[in-house]
Design goal:
The structure is a homodimer of 540-residue chains. Chain A is 29% helix and 25% strand. By secondary structure, chain A is α/β, with parallel strands linked by helices. Chain A has three domains: 319 residues, Rossmann fold (3-Layer(aba) Sandwich), CATH 3.40.50.12780; 50 residues, Roll (Luciferase, domain 3); 97 residues, ANL, C-terminal domain (GMP Synthetase, Chain A, domain 3, 2-Layer Sandwich), CATH 3.30.300.30. In chain A, strands 2-1-11-10-12-13-14-15-16 form a nine-stranded mixed sheet, with helices on both faces. In chain A, α1 packs antiparallel against α2 and α7 packs across α9. The radius of gyration of chain A is 23 Å and the shape is globular. Chains A and B meet through α1, β9, α7 and β16 of A and α1, β9, α7 and β16 of B.
């Protein structure tokens, strides 16, 4: 008979994260860009005190454990306080992506049954448009002081955050409850059907955040200053707002200013050492830095995820700017990071190109997450770096079922990611495609991601996308879309010749379409479904 | 009503630690000193395979979940395999300190009801002496091949480890069970009464090991090679045998050779970057290095705990050898690390002396552990760096009650450590004394540890100990014991004059006794109880 251990049984709760920071790193800084412009700065100790004030304020509004509080907000300190006040009180922090279509926003606010919605002034017009359709929302709270809280025509119940919390006490005893309690809710922006919600537990977030601090993941400590550009409405900014206080790292929140110049200036003025974001943001940042002949004085590492980082961009960061790139993978259903690519010690003597090739992959699963790839019958494929199949994940911060979902999507206890991947003998995973984007031609698969990465390596290409188009003989054939860089010329023949030197002959697209821009969805990803709708006919 | 999160509910089990290493860091090395001399090396992948063989072998011996397996062994690869095979099977790994008195060893083996005991050939004479008194032990397994397994007179049931596992399969499906299940058992060597056992749960060890990998604690990653000198029979070598596989760090196990020369040579030949051990081991290592004019080529960080590290030793490591010292605190009842001292970013411009003064303290509590100091009435004392009281701890890897203990030692849910400490405004904790060692004089407290640290700073002093002796007027007064370095002369007057310049006048000991050696107990700590017995009369 198993013997029970004799240790204290304390729950892993988010309230303990911010109180740990307040107690042990009380004077470490949080710097935040206000929505109206200026920088705000305070300490974890002050952040915890204001989170407790907000917890009192929410209780004062009549909210209780289990109630949902929505947010339509940038990365800023009030949003951070809400992360802790809401979840710490046993309520559910529901972060909404403001880039969703208003109809989808209305859907998720009602589906989550948000009682209060916190918003940044930027999104006042959005609130104006949706408030009447969200009858459960008693109060709309603008994350600002009274002076910076706009009146919203037709919306009576708007409060200024600072006025809401001002009369409240800094004393609040965080409730203790089961660590499996829901803490945060994030909806995936499905390209078809309604968005689906992942309800993260306290336990999942705390374990993920601890993992995020590890040297092999983000490597956070009091010596680091981290700037999460990845939004707090997107998978909790990869849990960095929870990881930084665990580690005592200085946290810099960029507010609404996400253009290359603003980010660069913030990195320099706050001596940011580590940053995290999606490839498109880094493309804009490097564009600014290149154009003005700048260097990074302190930033030496960046974590990239959300979509595959082209090897050319990795090369620029590393070789030109001396910034280490860590290329990870995760999704809404995996709380945050599931795998992270870093160089192993043996890479010391590798060429730059070898290093970049490795970092173009999404890396090894972090402790707490297991990965495998399976064929269409569910058989586990060998870890040989070439056998492609659907990536399956299992672990402490992987979703089991969607919020109010009718059935669990799990297969034998594993979550099917919808990503096509390979895993090599050393455990390094590489995303080859989305199951729905992979191009099946003559019984073989072509990775749309690999083709796109090859295309953006051309100096005249700003963006590229590949879809499969029906073909009478080959089942499907690739069609390439290219957005040229400003002022650049590039012909179909030139880009195809460029690709022919870099990919297998049968991978070379059958046609190329030049566009001024690619359709981009709520989370900044290219919407291939739109391309398919418009261009997905049949090759003759 | 709280909402349940919708994440996978997977247990935190030790089997997943070694399987993670096998899957994701399969070719990272484990290097181990055999008890009979040579170095052995293999990978985490091979380690996991052999752990599965041992799990099959233990099942073959008739053992079941909940059964206890003892070990009397050095830090080596077979001991590591047993860590995972035993706990992974749902059994309890009971590590025995071979330095305990044989009577105490017999007591703990019987108290734990060990069914099998693993031992290193070094300890064959010990086994010979105790086996007849341990009737529950069915099999004694020597951690060696047949050639290196000695026959033990009078002990029939001795097996060689390699013969035991040779016929067993590498396939074993680790059972899944509640993460609160007991995984490992370690007894404190109480100076009075029988030893008491702390039964660590899988959850406690996994969380502690994850915490140990953090940049602010041991900072483990595939880039590091860690040598735990702290024994695997002493609080699971501070959980490093669990932390290294989580991080994918190379693990170097020194076997029985713990002298300065052997450790130095192993550090150099295996390119060790991080080490961990008690101050006395480091004193011997530095003695060797100094005597031979050597340098550390790769070792750049060492974690120290178990007893307070004198500032003079910290200074030598840092200033002379460029090795970063991290000074931590923990005890058998806290699974491993509870606090860790590192320099904060603001220390950049500090003098060496300021840095060393900070590192002489035991540092901040790591995430997952809360600390406070209380007065004799249990009131929490201010975090002002001067208010001394008993250190109380609470957290995910803190013990709730002793194994087969009659009552929980907890006070309001906190574990009373028996250490006297201060905590400053930044959360930095400093051990001032043991509650039983602190010297109460004229209504004030004198820290025996501070006095000892001041004494060993004298160049002629090898070791020092201070006890309180009854005094008719002052209640207690300090009495100093000094062991001189070989060939050094030092008079009572000289050491007292030296101390008078460094401590408050009323702290200067009333008398000094020179000894050839101090009495040392099973875990390498000075036994002040012996000194008290022999010298603790009354000052006149």
């Amino acid at each position: 008979m198993l013997q029970p251990g004799l240790m204290m049984d304390r729950p892993l709760l988010l309230s303990s994260v911010i109180e740990h920071a307040a107690a042990q790193y009380g004077d470490a800084e949080v710097v935040s860009r206000e929505t109206h412009g200026p920088l705000f700065r305070y300490t974890y100790s002050e952040c915890a005190a204001r989170a407790r004030k907000l917890a009192n304020a929410l209780a004062g509004l009549g909210l209780q454990g289990g109630d949902a509080v929505g947010s339509i907000a940038w990365n800023n300190h009030r949003h951070l306080e809400a992360y802790y006040a809401v979840s710490g009180s046993g309520m559910v922090m529901h972060t909404c992506n403001p880039r969703l279509h208003p109809q989808q926003l209305i859907y998720i606010i009602n589906h989550a049954e948000d009682r209060v919605v916190l918003f940044d002034a930027t999104f006042a017009p959005l609130v104006k448009g949706i408030a009447a359709h969200c009858p459960n929302v008693r109060t709309w709270v603008c994350l600002a002081d009274a002076a910076n809280t706009p009146a919203i025509e037709g919306v009576a119940n708007v409060l200024a955050y600072e006025e809401l919390i001002a009369p409240c006490s800094e004393d609040f005893t965080w409730p203790e409850f089961d660590e499996h309690t829901g803490a945060a809710l994030c909806y995936t922006s499905g390209t078809t059907g309604n968005p689906k919600g992942a309800l993260y537990s306290h336990r999942a977030i705390v374990l993920n955040a601890m993992s995020g601090c590890l040297p092999g993941v983000l490597s956070l400590s009091p010596a680091e200053t981290i700037l999460p550009v990845v939004p707090m409405f997107h998978i909790n900014a990869w849990c960095i707002p929870y990881a930084a206080p665990i580690a005592g790292a200085k946290l810099v929140l960029p507010g609404p200013r996400l253009d290359g110049q603003s980010l660069y200036e913030l990195m320099e003025s706050e001596a940011v050492t580590v940053s995290a974001g999606v490839p498109t943001i880094w493309q804009a940042l490097l564009g600014h830095v290149e154009q003005h002949g700048l260097r990074f004085s302190t930033m030496y590492r960046t974590a990239v995820g959300g979509s595959a980082m082209p090897q050319a961009l990795i090369a620029k960061f590393m070789d030109t700017y001396g910034v280490e790139v860590r290329h990870g993978w995760g999704m809404t259903e995996t709380t945050a990071v599931g795998t992270m690519g870093t160089l192993m010690p043996k890479a010391k003597n590798w060429t730059s190109e070898q290093k970049q090739a490795l970092l173009a992959k999404q890396g090894k699963s972090t402790f707490g997450v297991e990965i495998k790839v399976v064929d269409e019958q569910g058989n586990t494929l060998p870890r040989d770096g070439t056998s492609q199949g659907e990536l399956m994940v299992r672990g402490h911060w992987i979703m089991a079922s969607y919020y109010k979902g009718e059935r669990s999507p799990l297969v034998d206890g594993w979550f099917p990611t919808g990503d096509i991947a390979t895993i090599d003998a050393e455990g390094v995973m590489q995303i080859r495609d989305r199951t729905k984007d992979v191009i099946k031609t003559g019984g073989e698969w072509i990775s749309s991601i690999d083709l796109e990465s090859a295309a953006v390596a051309h100096p005249a290409v700003a963006m590229a996308a590949v879809i499969g188009v029906k073909h009478p003989k080959w089942d499907e054939r690739p069609l390439l879309f290219v957005v040229r860089k400003p002022g650049q010329t590039l012909s179909k023949e030139e880009i195809l010749a460029f690709l022919a030197e870099r990919v297998a002959k049968w991978w070379v697209p059958d046609d190329v379409i030049f566009l001024d821009a690619l359709p981009v969805g709520g989370t900044g990803k290219v919407q291939k479904s739109d391309l398919r709708k418009q261009y997905g006919g049949v090759f003759s």
